[in-house]
Give the backbone structure.
Amino acid sequence: MAYDYQAEAWKVMTSGRTQRRGSGCPMKKQGRYFLKDSIRRTVDFSMTDQNKGVEPPPVQKPCPQEAARVDLPEPDPGWQGKIPLADAMARRESRRKYGKEYLSLEELSFLLWATQGLKGAPSGGHAFRTVPSAGCRHAFETYLAVFRVKGLEKGIYRYLPVEHQLTAISRPAGIERLTIGAALNQKFAGSGAATFIWTSIPYRMEWRYGEAAYKVIALDAGHICQNLYLACEAIEAGTCAIAAYDQEKADALVGADGEEEFVIYMAPVGKREPQ
Ligand SMILES: Cc1cc2nc3c(=O)[nH]c(=O)nc-3n(C[C@H](O)[C@H](O)[C@H](O)COP(=O)(O)O)c2cc1C
């Protein structure tokens, strides 16, 4: 019999903390179920919005025409290809100490292109990117907490992959402190040149896969961050994935509503400290 995901989820949500321990813990069972693909058997794919003929959601979150935008330099993969790919893989490590140098806009442009850049114009409700994604759904937005990037004021920005631009979201006072707070007080989150903050917009994936969307969203997030690690190595910068963060503070920092869009992953980036 198929695992009753909804009934178990409800039990977990309504149970007290003490019931979550032990081998029969419903939270564990639910978590392990999430890692499997058994859910596919329980989804009626004929009832997904895609198969019901609903228009696909936009490939990027809409940006008001009047919003302030910053053009990014054209991404030029050749420009940054300073080290062989195998060297980048071999050198890659989680770096939590950063120098005080500014990132250039060209470098930031390269990192954004490497992680979420488009490889052609959107067509038919999807767009191919530098990273793979289940069903080409790419259910993410990229926000940046910018601290030290040449040509950019400190503040929160969102990447617009279709136009390869940034749009300014807010300029909160004490942005470093707020970013550290959003990262559960992991100080390195506010000490680089900029911190990548990825949100998920699950509907982009649910539109095609229904309840089978969630595992592949999590898998997709990994590809993005790995490309950031490798791209950082190519520009003598470093990064470190952050999955331990304060959900509400992180959502508030980027202005995500916490339901249709919420933070899923973070990664500070900074120039490597001189060895
Ligand atoms: C999904 C994920 C979440 C992580 N979250 C954190 C984090 O919140 N804080 C942190 O300091 N490191 C975090 N890391 C970095 C790991 O600790 C690091 O990758 C691991 O220790 C192996 O080291 P290496 O990346 O240098 O090979 C995370 C890594 C991954 C892949």
